[in-house]
């Protein structure tokens, strides 16, 4: 389904064009006339001959040309028939304003009406925006297919796709030098969803960034594919997700659900795509503007992983009752392992201000938001000393003090010198412009701004100018900055957030397409595996598990413990048992025959021992750092979940998510982002764990979930030491 004629029409017809002021049909015609739409515009009305000077015809088939876009501004009941009429006439797409579809009746007449609309559009492969939305404004094409008040705006490179009509309306009304290219109010998304618009805009000339306001993520594979198209074209994406959807039933019943909610899964995908994550509409628009004007000249992201280096060929499953051996040999060089976990480019941002207070708060916000402010090199500090006043101390943040505020030459020089430091990428300059000032005062403020503009001319795409308070970035100032290729941002914290967005490497299209492909689900048997079944599956795919035996009586448990020859754990193992600890179905550290026999009898007679329950007798694993490794496949895309804490996972809430597939190096990079990463890399004199072994284990688990079509996997804990990693507990659901 092609959206070209709908997003950039050369001719438009308004069905329901009306002479009644304030009606959708009247507004739609008035907006097209006010915008100076360059192509032919027609109205469709059974009796009217013209509206706002636009000629009207009784029906669509009476129009003198076939319009690219049809705006349908009539009651809901008429819409399916009009879509059929537009399709028969060869129109390129339609915008439907009317409400009264599935949003008011999911099972009754509203749903039936929406189904009829979808069927009509499908019959002619015709895209439809809506229903129950404000429409589309192609600002660059001067084509507002819009059912609300509209004032023509200066076009630019920023597109907005919003599942909220009001967010789109407010963006069009805002005074922030946003310079929009296209605005889409999705409505019910009956025919085209946000991912469809995103993919289409990726192919539209002049778009350099897209702001996405989402209430429903939709199809994850489609969204990942659309993000891949944006990555291919170098188009930045900023996302605001409103609310969080309910967790899938399988995830909600396990620790994973507490630390890997649906919004976190979406955020992991967005960040994998090099996108920026917003928390409110203001941030969303400032981030989209930054990604449109700013340059991210960072090394190319790592290539999409090919087939995993480790083999996924399963070994012959061990029969219940035979040892579950779980040893693996990790043979890579230790130094190479450390290098593989390196973070790549380490450039950071520079903050420039004339205020010590702004410097301190900016530094605090950078630390809170994870934006790196690297120290400047000694040579840079020396060069700055020659430009700064004696009262200023060079550093990052760079407070040049009010002594030289308004000095064009020195302002330009100090920014240029500091930005030339090899550690510096984007530059954030704080500048507040009062709305009212005397002519003499304006000279000083103009000089300060001119110095920033002069410096920015030698730093294309690297300079952001932010006011400390949003209302101190007047539209006139914002427009002037934008004219010079400088991103104007309203707000101190927003400035830090936006400069951080320029430090994130852009997405890799091939990687995102691999993520989209990983979302495909197969069919087959379903249900929870007993733990001993889960560990057979894990062992067969090279995931280390404790050596163990499956038994059904207390005497067999005693024999198994003797065969293992060391302290053992006893666990009830059943397909009906999800959380063994909650039911007292786990006994640890049993060292003698009496303890094993008594423990086995206690488990077999407990309320948790359902019919057919077995006992898993396993060797005790030496203590180490406890990590959770899990897979969720019921979110927008499949993700690997890595968390610290074992049984304390929910309380610590320290987790990172990696979209699948994920190779060991990508896993290690993610592990280093955990707040508790120091426990893995060596803290307080403790030896570091084998990160490569942990990375390979997690990568294998992710691949296993895709190969075996597993809905859910949770290994909690995985015990990691300096020379081994072992999945002690396993919960798997097909």
TrEMBL record:
<dbReference type="Pfam" id="PF13549">
    <property type="entry name" value="ATP-grasp_5"/>
</dbReference>
<keyword id="KW-0067">ATP-binding</keyword>
<dbReference type="InterPro" id="IPR003781">
    <property type="entry name" value="CoA-bd"/>
</dbReference>
<dbReference type="InterPro" id="IPR032875">
    <property type="entry name" value="Succ_CoA_lig_flav_dom"/>
</dbReference>
<keyword id="KW-0547">Nucleotide-binding</keyword>
<dbReference type="InterPro" id="IPR011761">
    <property type="entry name" value="ATP-grasp"/>
</dbReference>
<feature type="region of interest" description="Disordered">
    <location>
        <begin position="296"/>
        <end position="326"/>
    </location>
</feature>
<dbReference type="InterPro" id="IPR016102">
    <property type="entry name" value="Succinyl-CoA_synth-like"/>
</dbReference>
<dbReference type="InterPro" id="IPR013815">
    <property type="entry name" value="ATP_grasp_subdomain_1"/>
</dbReference>
<protein>
    <submittedName>
        <fullName>Acetate--CoA ligase family protein</fullName>
    </submittedName>
</protein>
<dbReference type="Pfam" id="PF13607">
    <property type="entry name" value="Succ_CoA_lig"/>
</dbReference>
<dbReference type="Pfam" id="PF13380">
    <property type="entry name" value="CoA_binding_2"/>
</dbReference>
<feature type="domain" description="ATP-grasp">
    <location>
        <begin position="535"/>
        <end position="733"/>
    </location>
</feature>
<keyword id="KW-0436">Ligase</keyword>
<dbReference type="GO" id="GO:0016874">
    <property type="term" value="F:ligase activity"/>
</dbReference>
<dbReference type="InterPro" id="IPR036291">
    <property type="entry name" value="NAD(P)-bd_dom_sf"/>
</dbReference>
């Amino acid at each position: 389904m092609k959206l070209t004629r709908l997003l950039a029409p050369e001719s438009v017809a308004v069905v329901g064009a009306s002479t009644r002021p304030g009606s959708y049909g009247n507004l739609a015609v008035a907006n097209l006339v006010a915008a100076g739409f360059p192509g032919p515009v027609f109205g469709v009305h059974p009796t009217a001959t013209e509206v706002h000077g636009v000629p009207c015809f009784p029906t669509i088939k009476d129009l003198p040309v076939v319009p690219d876009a049809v705006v349908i501004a009539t009651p809901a009941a008429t819409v399916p028939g009009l879509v059929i009429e537009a399709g028969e006439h060869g129109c390129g797409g339609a915008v439907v304003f009317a409400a009264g579809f599935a949003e008011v009746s999911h099972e009754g007449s509203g749903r039936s009406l929406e189904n009829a609309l979808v069927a009509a559009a499908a019959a002619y492969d015709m895209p439809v925006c809506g229903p129950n939305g404000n429409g589309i404004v192609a600002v660059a094409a001067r084509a507002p297919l819009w059912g609300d008040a509209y004032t023509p705006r200066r076009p630019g490179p920023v597109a907005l796709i919003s599942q909220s009509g009001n967010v789109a309306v407010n963006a069009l009304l805002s005074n922030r030098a946003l310079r929009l290219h296209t605005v889409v109010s999705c409505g019910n998304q009956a025919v085209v969803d946000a991912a469809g618009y995103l993919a289409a805009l990726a192919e539209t000339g002049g778009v350099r960034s897209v702001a996405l306001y989402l209430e429903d993520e939709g199809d994850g594979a489609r969204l990942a594919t659309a993000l891949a198209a944006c990555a291919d074209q170098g188009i930045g994406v900023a996302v605001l997700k409103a609310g969080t959807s309910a967790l899938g039933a399988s995830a909600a019943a396990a620790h994973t659900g507490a630390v890997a909610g649906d919004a976190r899964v979406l955020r992991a995908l967005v960040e994998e795509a090099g996108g920026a994550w917003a928390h409110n509409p203001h941030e969303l628009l400032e981030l989209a503007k930054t990604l449109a004007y700013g340059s991210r000249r960072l090394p190319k992201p790592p290539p999409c992983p090919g087939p995993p280096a480790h083999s996924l060929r399963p070994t012959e499953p061990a029969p219940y009752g035979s040892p579950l051996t779980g040893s693996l040999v990790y043979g890579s060089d230790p130094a190479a392992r450390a290098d593989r976990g390196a973070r790549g480019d380490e450039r950071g941002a520079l903050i420039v201000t004339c205020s010590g207070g702004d410097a301190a708060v900016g530094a605090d916000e950078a630390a809170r938001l994870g934006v790196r402010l690297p120290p400047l090199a000694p040579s840079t500090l020396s060069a700055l000393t020659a430009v700064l006043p004696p009262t200023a101390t060079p550093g990052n943040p760079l407070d040049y003090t009010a002594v030289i505020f308004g000095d064009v030459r020195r302002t330009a020089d100090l920014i240029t010198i500091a930005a030339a430091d090899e550690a510096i990428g984007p530059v954030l300059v704080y500048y507040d412009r009062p709305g009212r000032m005397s002519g003499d005062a304006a000279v000083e403020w103009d000089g300060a701004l001119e110095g920033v503009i002069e410096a920015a001319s030698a730093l294309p795409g690297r300079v952001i100018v932010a006011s400390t308070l949003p209302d101190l970035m007047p539209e006139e100032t914002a427009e002037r900055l934008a004219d010079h290729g400088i991103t104007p941002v309203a707000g101190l914290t927003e400035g830090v957030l936006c400069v951080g967005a320029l430090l994130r490497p852009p997405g890799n299209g091939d990687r995102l397409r691999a993520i989209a492909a990983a979302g495909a689900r197969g069919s087959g048997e379903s249900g929870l595996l007993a733990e001993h079944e889960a560990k057979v599956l894990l062992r067969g795919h090279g995931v280390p598990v404790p050596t163990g035996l499956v038994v059904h009586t207390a005497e067999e448990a005693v024999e198994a413990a003797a065969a293992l020859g060391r302290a053992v754990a006893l666990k009830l193992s059943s397909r009906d048992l999800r959380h063994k600890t909650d039911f007292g179905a786990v006994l640890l550290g049993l060292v003698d025959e009496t303890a094993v026999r008594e423990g086995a009898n206690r488990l077999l007679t407990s309320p948790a021992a359902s019919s057919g329950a077995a006992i898993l007798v396993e060797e005790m694993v030496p203590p180490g750092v406890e990590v959770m490794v899990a897979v969720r496949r019921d979110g927008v895309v499949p993700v690997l979940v890595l968390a610290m804490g074992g049984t304390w996972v929910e309380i610590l809430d320290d987790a990172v998510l990696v979209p699948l597939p994920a190779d060991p190096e990508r896993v290690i990079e993610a592990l280093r982002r955990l707040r508790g990463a120091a426990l893995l890399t060596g803290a307080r004199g403790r030896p570091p764990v084998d990160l490569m072994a942990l990375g390979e284990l997690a990568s294998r688990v992710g691949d296993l979930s895709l190969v075996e079509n597993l809905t859910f996997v949770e290994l909690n804990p995985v015990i990691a030491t300096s020379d081994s990693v072992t999945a002690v507990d396993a919960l798997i659901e097909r």
